[in-house]
Amino acid sequence: MGSGYNAAHHERRGRMKWSLNTYKTAQDWELDYLIEMAKKTGYHGIEFLMDYNQRHGLEWDTPRERWDEVKRKMEEAGLEFASLTSCQVFHHPTEEERRKSVERVKRVIDMAHFFGCKHVRVLGDRFTSENRDEVIRNVGSCLRELGEYAEEYGITVSIEMHGSFTDPDPALEVISIADRPNVGLVFNCVWPNVTIETVDEFHDRIMPYVTMVHAHRVEDPATFEFYRRMFAKLKERGFDGYISNESAYTGPDPEKVLAMYVALYRALSGE
Questions:
Q1: Which end of the chain has fewer CB within 10 Å, C or N?
Q2: How does DSSP classify residue 7?
Q3: Angle at 171 between CA 165 and CA 175, to 5 degrees
Q4: How far is CA 216 from each of CA 23, 200, 248, rounded to the nearest angstrom?
């Protein structure tokens, strides 16, 4: 990695925390109900997904007067803003479109600073074999600018290992190009071409840069051992960021299921 990246910045010593990502499960919940459910089912914070017009009402262009109400309600509930999770992407071929995305994320960073939120997630997101190198350079450059902007506020900006960046090679390339101590990775709990024999090596490659984890169906037998090994590696590193529930459950008993995932996280982390 470049000289600007300080892996120790992400090797924080402490205990993992749990957040509820509003993807699918909570996308139609009004803010008050979202807060109530997150608190009663044992989450430390909420990860607010943006750019999908979810009912919680936080978007990159949410009026400033709305910020106070959201902050007050979260503080009264004793919940943290785990992440403001932007779905802006930087794979656009034109500088104009990339600039638009960067400026929108800068406003999200301003919002995060107001909320006392220390994490903003962005996406890369897609490339082809023909434009791979160009897209990676552009994404890395955008992340560098956002990292510089966020550093003043003590905020980390992380690209999710999603889309074409699910593969650790391009994901780590953009981290190297960005070359900032506060730019990292959100691991999306997808293990491409990974086996039980190679999963520990896979985790070793990405873990120095992981700032947050998006967990899905942890209970699935097909990937349960991968999750178990991941939690062990996070614990070994002293990770104290968020494990965010992105299970996308939409069944009839969300309270029971959300609480079950917290119990799983606690068991896997040895809490």
A1: C
A2: G
A3: 145
A4: 11, 19, 7
Alpha-carbon distance of 84 to 47, in angstroms, equals 6
Whole-number Å distance between alpha carbons of 49 and 96? 24
With bands split at pLDDT 50, 70 and 90, how would you rate the model's confidence at 6? very low
The angle formed by the CA atoms of residues 256, 261 and 160, to the nearest 5 degrees, is: 130
Max CA separation in the chain (angstroms): 52
pTM: 0.94
Residue appearing with tokens 């990695």: 1
Matching residue, tokens 């947050």: 212
Q: Is-contact 189 214, C-beta < 8 A? A: yes
Residue whose entry in the numeric block shows the structure tokens 């989450």: 43
Q: Domains along the chain?
A: 12-269 (3.20.20.150)
What pLDDT score was predicted for residue 120? 98
**Integer Cα distance of 212 and 232 in angstroms:** 15
Q: How many angstroms separate the CA atoms of 16 and 271, rounded?
A: 9
